[in-house]
Every structure is written in structure tokens, then in C-alpha cells.
Amino acid sequence: QAQHGQGHFLFAMQRDQTMGRAHKIHAGPAWLEVGALASFLQDAPGGGTDFAAGPLARVRLLKHDGWIPQVSVGGYGKIGAETLEQASAFAALTERFEVQAGPVESVAFHAGVRETWRDADDSFRGFFGVEVQLPARLYLIGEIATESSIDQDLPWAAGFQWRAGGINISTSVIEPGDGGDVGFFFGIGTQF
């Protein structure tokens, strides 16, 4: 039975003396997510605040069942300030294993590919991530991506997420791969 849900996610990221904020709102049954993204970049190159927004969609093609991973495809795009405009398409696989060993309750792996179009710069990346579930709904999370043609460093992220039921709080360090400083990420999501 499909469950309808809506969510809002706000994140902030600080790096290279610039603060970025984004909002995501989405709704749909368990197999479909549709919504919108909005991004703000304070102290953008040239000063001031840049803004861009656009649609997002994700479709679950296969549901996780035993050894069959969840398979999803989707995309999103943002139109507005040139510093934030982009379009992306992705495909991802997710497989979760119940472990129940010591403090580890489960381990999930995800892998996929993402193509991003940004002005004249296109980037194609593969990515791989892991999520370790601990007691009290605390998760250790990490992801690494392949370097694309526009990257100067290997992109990666690592952090924590607390899924408190009705609210999710995330924090991590992130290396986007563009040659800038490593950044700090904080996010909070709700369901309504």
C-alpha cells in the first residue's frame, strides 16, 4: 500500500567565506517523489545573494526485497542565478542489511551515477555510499564520488544523521571536489 507523505528540508553549508541555503519540498506515494528546490547563496561572487529554483522528481523502479536492491531514477533542475543554475539526472541502487551486532543495527550501501549540466561544464560521476544504523535512530553516513572532468579534488562527505521520527537532523563535512575548502553542512527535515 502506498503511503502519501510530504517533507520539507532546509540545509545550510559554509565554505570559502560563503554561506549557502537550500529548501526542498516534496510529496507523493512511496514509489514517487515530486517537488521543488530553491537555493540561496549569500556573499556570492560579485557580492549580494544569488537565487535559483526548479523542479525535482524521483521514481522508484524496484522496491528492496531480499537480495533485490531498491532502484530509483530521477532528476532535478534549477533556473536563476548563473552560479546556481544546473540540471541533473541520476540512477541509484540501495541495499540494506540487518546486522544486529553490538551497537550496529543495520548497514545500507548505495551506488549510482549522476550527470550534471551547468553552462558549458558537464560532469559525470559515479558515487558510492554507506549508512550505519546505531541505537537511538543515529546513523553514520558517508559518500565518495568519482572525479568528473571539472573536479580538482576527489568529492566526498561524511557525517551523522539523527532520525528522531517526524524530524531528521544531519551534520557533515563535505568536499565538493571543486578545489575550494572543505565545507560544513547542517540540515533539518520534517514531515507534515
**Structural class label:** mainly beta
* Low-confidence regions: 1-6
Shape: globular
Mean pLDDT: 88
Helix-strand pattern: EEEEEEEEEEEE
Strand content: over 45%
- Please bin the fraction of helical residues: under 10%
Cross-sheet strand order for the largest sheet: 1-2-3-4-5-6-7-8-9-10-11-12
Count of helical regions:
0
What's the story with the biggest beta sheet? 12 strands, antiparallel, barrel
Q: Please compute the radius of gyration using only Cα atoms.
A: 17 Å
Number of strands: 12
- Give the CA-CA distance, first to last residue: 19 Å
Walk me through this protein's architecture.
It is a single chain. The protein is mainly beta and 192 residues long. Helix content is 0%, strand content 71%. It has a 12-stranded antiparallel barrel with strand order 1-2-3-4-5-6-7-8-9-10-11-12. A hairpin with a 2-residue loop joins β1 and β2.
Q: What's the quick description here?
A:
Helices cover 0% and strands 71% of the residues.
Blueprint (SSEs and pairs):
Blueprint: E1 5-15, E2 18-28, E3 32-42, E4 49-62, E5 70-80, E6 86-101, E7 104-118, E8 121-134, E9 138-145, E10 156-163, E11 167-175, E12 183-191
Antiparallel strand pairs: 1-2, 1-12, 2-3, 3-4, 4-5, 5-6, 6-7, 7-8, 8-9, 9-10, 10-11, 11-12
